[in-house]
């Protein structure tokens, strides 16, 4: 049985993942409103991925006979200074998620909750990929600077992104 402390952190993280999806949809809306459809698609797919992560946590809690509890999701930021600002906000959000999973991992280690450690390892590996993705996009966009043609080509590549359900 999961401890109250670990249950709380897992529930918090499930809610954080749903909130992250909400944030990414707000970023998509920002991009879409400015006719950056490729960037909007990137964030829509990112939101799908975050909902997938939230459901993994939801299912794990239920598999462990724990009540998955939902909290209010705060309103996301809706305005950004630029496209790169959205990616910097996304990177900061992913770094917070990584820290949260470190905390869960620390508690599970302390409590010798090996099943949770095994479960969380997937998320830790995923977070390496998530942070690297945002860092790479920031590097590319900074390299492009004000080259609208390059930005257009880059955006078209992001328009092709699709989330495959974690396969």
Automatic annotation (TrEMBL):
What EC number(s) is this enzyme filed under? 1.16.3.2
Which compartment or compartments is the protein found in?
Cytoplasm
In terms of Gene3D superfamilies, this protein maps to: 1.20.1260.10
Ferritin-like diiron domain span: 1-145
What keywords tag this UniProt record? Answer: Cytoplasm, Iron, Iron storage, Metal-binding, Oxidoreductase
Q: Which reaction does it catalyse?
A: 4 Fe(2+) + O2 + 6 H2O = 4 iron(III) oxide-hydroxide + 12 H(+)
The record's listing under InterPro entries reads: Ferritin, Ferritin-like, Ferritin-like_diiron, Ferritin-like_SF, Ferritin_DPS_dom, Ferritin_prok
One Pfam match, given by its short name, reads: Ferritin
Could you say which enzyme class this protein belongs to? oxidoreductase
Membership in a protein family: Belongs to the ferritin family. Prokaryotic subfamily.
Purpose of the protein: Iron-storage protein.
Return the protein name: Ferritin
């Amino acid at each position: 049985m999961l401890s109250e402390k670990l249950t709380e952190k897992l529930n918090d993280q499930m809610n954080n993942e749903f909130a992250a999806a909400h944030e990414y949809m707000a970023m998509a809306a920002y991009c879409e409103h400015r006719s950056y459809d490729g960037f909007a698609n990137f964030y829509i797919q990112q939101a799908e991925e975050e909902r997938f992560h939230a459901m993994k946590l939801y299912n794990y809690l239920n598999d462990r006979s724990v009540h998955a509890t939902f909290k209010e999701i705060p309103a996301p930021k809706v305005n950004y200074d630029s496209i790169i600002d959205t990616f910097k906000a996304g990177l900061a959000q992913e770094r917070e998620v990584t820290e949260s999973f470190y905390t869960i991992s620390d508690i599970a280690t302390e409590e010798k909750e090996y099943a949770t450690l095994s479960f969380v390892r997937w998320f830790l590996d995923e977070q390496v990929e998530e942070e690297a993705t945002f860092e790479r996009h920031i590097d590319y966009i900074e390299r492009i600077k004000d080259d609208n043609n390059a930005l257009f080509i880059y955006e078209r590549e992001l328009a092709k992104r699709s989330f495959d359900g974690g396969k």
